[in-house]
Amino acid sequence: MGKRNTVQHQPNPHESTHSLKGTFIAVMLLGVFILVSWFGFYALFLSR
Amino acid sequence: MTKVQLPLSKKESRLYMAFMWVTYISLLIGGLMGLLQTLVRSGKYTLPFNIDYYTILTVHGVILGLVLTTFFIIGFQFSLMGKTVGISDKQLKVAWLSFWVMLIGTIMAAVTILVGEASVLYTFYAPLRAHPAFYIGLALVIIGSWIAAFVNFRQLYVWKKAHKGEKSPLPAFMVIINMLMWFIATIGVATSVLVLFIPWSLGYAETINVLLSRTLFWYFGHPLVYFWLLPAYMAWYVVIPKIIGGKLFSDALARMAFILLLMFSIPVGFHHQLTEPGIDPTWKFIQVVLTFMVVIPSLMTAFSIFATFETTGRRKGFKSLFGWFKKLPWKDVRFLAPFIGMAAFIPGGAGGIVNASHQMNALVHNTIWITGHFHLTAATTVILTFFGITYWLVPHLTGRRLTPRLNKLGIIQTFIWTFGMTIMSGSMHIQGLLGGPRRSSFSEYAGGEQVATWINYQIAQAVGGTILFIGILLMVYIFIQLTFFAPRGVQEYPIAVEEDDAEPTPKILENWYLWIGITIALILFAYTIPVIDILKHSPPGSLPFDWPIGR
Ligand code: HEM
Ligand SMILES: [Cu+2]
User: Fold this and answer.
1) No. of H helices and E strands in chain A?
2) What is the residue extent of each domain of chain B?
């Protein structure tokens, strides 16, 4: 991706707040939900 | 994207409001038809004056699916362009032309349907025939929307010339992607209407190639749903972060997601034709694979939204894993309505993946499950986001304010909609899995065990539909309040800016030749051979049918 700004970075007081753990887990749960529902309907299809 | 917003002149605002007016009048008319449909299907009500069920179903589908959405989207997108790249007096004149052409087309089509001369449903499948005025009206709506698209392209072009080397503002970039997609997609349906339907309905051509007409329709039909969704995504990417007091998560990610949506929205229409004889299964398979590619930009969008929520919450000092979630502005309808829209997109999207899977499509094809599906995606995700935009856009345009009272009514509206739609869409989904057909007036289908399992769900749909119609009345009331009666003031037009330490956006994301080139290449790949096949091997064309439904 594009080259980084050459400007010296100030130590960022918010750096520690940049955790995206919750985001990661939420997106994974979303993926799981999609897979589970897909296989659920697939099972229904097979059973018919 | 550090630019200050441009003010919207009185003249411009009037144009954008004209589009909003058509939107909310359509909502009222179309919503009433929806209510009547559910009442008829409950088996306890018959339409007065011999009105045909399929007439009102056509009004509902055309007015809500095609008219309301297109007018709202073009009006909202014009406002985004006006805010970020500006509009000249000349462009404004041409933009008004687009409005009038679309409106005249809408009125032509609507009147033709209402007098019973075009009960062909919004997909106007051949060989059902409508009066030529219906097709001509639709063609005018499309042509009007093309005029709007070219004004948008021109707006960005002029801005680019004045801002050499700068990246385009993100909202403008998104609008251009959506209008490019719309233009490329509508070429299909316009060809079908102008070349196949109009001569045939006028009697100049005796027969019509049914398969070709349906293929051209769905070449347009899938991008159509993305044309609805992308403006909602625009609000999720650039408006919602501002409303919750945060910043844009990533300019580059947002652009990349939109580019992927452009590329993978069009060469996929066969997923609506999986039960269609006459299309080689190999090409159905290829288009299904391409369909599944939209999972990528969709999950990118989900990631970006969660990340905006989390980053904003943590900035405000919330430490626990999901603590940031509780502190979102739940009492602000500008946030709540689109948020519920996002939430509805989770089951909506999951259902979409089921529909697009060839085997499971057999389970749900042409059942009322499909109707349940797009009332979640279009009539909840998209519509609630559009309502969410209305709460600030309309007062911004009319020089008024969203008062706490109207905000509260908006929250009530959101709950009514959610509640009504859960009942209606939920029962449609279940009834569909039990085999209940869509696009069907009330019928006992000569009895039978399976049929007996449906009626309770149809009654539930009438209950949900009644609640939804109350929600529509409330929304129209709020719209009128925001237009004429709310106190004068300044309502913010929320557009988020980038983080201070954001990485620069790669230049390649604005290489239009590249992205349009790939889009066209994918379309040619997915459609050339099957369409040649269709042209070469089609059975004889069909004469027009005016019965059982038509004119
Ligand atoms: C009061 C709210 C609403 C109610 C009660 C309602 C009810 C219904 C019902 C019962 C059907 C299916 C009828 C059948 O297949 O026989 C239907 C179809 C449809 N609805 Fe709605 N709806 C509502 C709102 C909306 C909204 C807001 C949109 C669009 C944004 C929408 C778009 C559609 C479309 C495109 C169809 C398909 C028509 C067709 O199959 O030809 N509806 N609606
Ligand atoms: Cu589709």
Assistant:
1) 1, 0
2) 330-496
- Beta pairing partners, B545: B128
Active-site residue flag, B222: yes
Contact B398, B12 (CB under 8 A): no
- What is the reported pTM? 0.91
From the number of C-beta atoms within 10 Å of its C-beta (0-12, 13-18, 19+), residue B123 rates as middle
The β-bridge partners of B367 are: B437
Instruction: Determine how many CB atoms are found less than 10 A away from the CB of residue B448.
Output: 9
pLDDT tens sequence across B440-489: 888 888 878 888 888 889 999 999 999 999 999 999 999 999 999 989 98
Enter the tokens of residue B530.
Answer: 């099957």
Residues of A in contact with B357 (CB under 8 A): 38, 42
Task: Give CA–CA dist B133/B198, Å, rounded.
Answer: 9
Which ligand is located closest to the Cα atom of residue B268?
2
The mean predicted confidence, pLDDT, of chain B is 91
pLDDT in tens, B151-196: 999 999 999 999 888 889 999 999 999 999 999 999 999 999 999 9
Question: Chain B within 8 Å of A47 (Cβ-Cβ)?
Answer: no
- Residue B366 gets the label, from left (phi > 0), alpha (psi -120 to 50) or beta, of left
Nearest by CB to A34, which of B350, B363, B506?
A: B350
Q: pLDDT tens digit string along B375-423?
A: 999 999 999 999 999 999 999 999 999 999 999 999 999 999 999 999 9
